[in-house]
Amino acid sequence: MHSTTSEPPSPAPDAAPVPLLATAEQALKIAVVGGFGVGKTTLVRSVSEIRPLNTEETMTRAGDGVDDLHGVEAKRSTTVAFDFGRITLDATSVLYVFGAPGQERFWFLWDRLFSGALGAVVLVDTRRLADSFYAIDRLEAQGTPFVVAHNDFGESTHDLDEVRSALDLDPGVPLVRCDARERDSAKQVLIALVRHVRSLVTEGSR
Amino acid sequence: MSRSHRQEGPDRLYVITSGRSAGADESLDAVTLIAAESEPAPGMQSEHAEILRMCAAGPMAVVEISAHLHLPVAVVRILLTDLLDSGRVTARHPRPAPSPATPLASPDVLEKVLVALHNL
């Protein structure tokens, strides 16, 4: 079985399941996409109320969204590991934040995950901006609201205008700087996304 | 992860699902919340019993069940479909997925998310 993950698996022992409130009824999701080592898992860890969990989606291209375990037997499938964390919003709602590799070869796996997502964060690293081109193209094509977050781990030398220009980013797409290790910084990225989605909703209703 | 299925062959997955690869409830989203409606019964397949124990204290999302069972989401969907069909669990689906016709969440929901994020 071919397995791919952009982050090393956690060496820590498994966390015990942390149940949601019995009243939880609605789950929302946000996807964080980006290239290898850009800090997706770090960002998820920074905002999650539980230790981030790791799981896998196994599908075949031929299955076209239909899970095919016989494909696993024949080793024709691709397995992608993804990390996720969660944030309790209130007594009835919970938000899941998924970290997913954004490269073209994985995208067919994410169509299902992104379906129904509030929006996406494209996490970029100026050393490997090209890793995010495909994700940005796909999100634009799908009409999924997204923001771009430049993760500089606190040591950026690039200004955001340069990053925007290098990514050829639509002026309507928010671009923010962050340090994914910092809870408040990571949280501001999610806030920027939700505000962006809200502004699209408001515009749409006028 | 100490017992990752990534280190296992496909045989275990095949056994767990009795060789099934289709028939999973397609409405089960990664974040559909699953609530247990009954206790594990004697003789029940261990993965089914484990899901019921896991969801006894409160609902749990499909992806969380998958992570704690160390099984791919695709396999968990099949196991959950068995439990749904026998009425042992219920599913709380997310709001209808945004489609090209209704692409975005409601302002009320977005406000709620913003408030919660600010309070993090």
From TrEMBL, chain A:
Keywords: GTP-binding, Hydrolase, Nucleotide-binding, Receptor. Belongs to the GPN-loop GTPase family. One of its GO terms (molecular function) is GTP binding. This is Signal recognition particle receptor subunit beta. Pfam families: ATP_bind_1 (PF03029). It comes from the Bacteria. InterPro entries: Gliding_Motility_GTPase, Gpn, P-loop_NTPase. The lineage of its organism: Bacteria, Bacillati, Actinomycetota, Actinomycetes, Streptosporangiales. It comes from Nocardiopsis aegyptia.
Automatic annotation (TrEMBL), chain B:
It comes from the Bacteria. InterPro entries: DUF742. PANTHER family: DUF742 DOMAIN-CONTAINING PROTEIN (PTHR36221). This is DUF742 domain-containing protein. It comes from Nocardiopsis aegyptia.
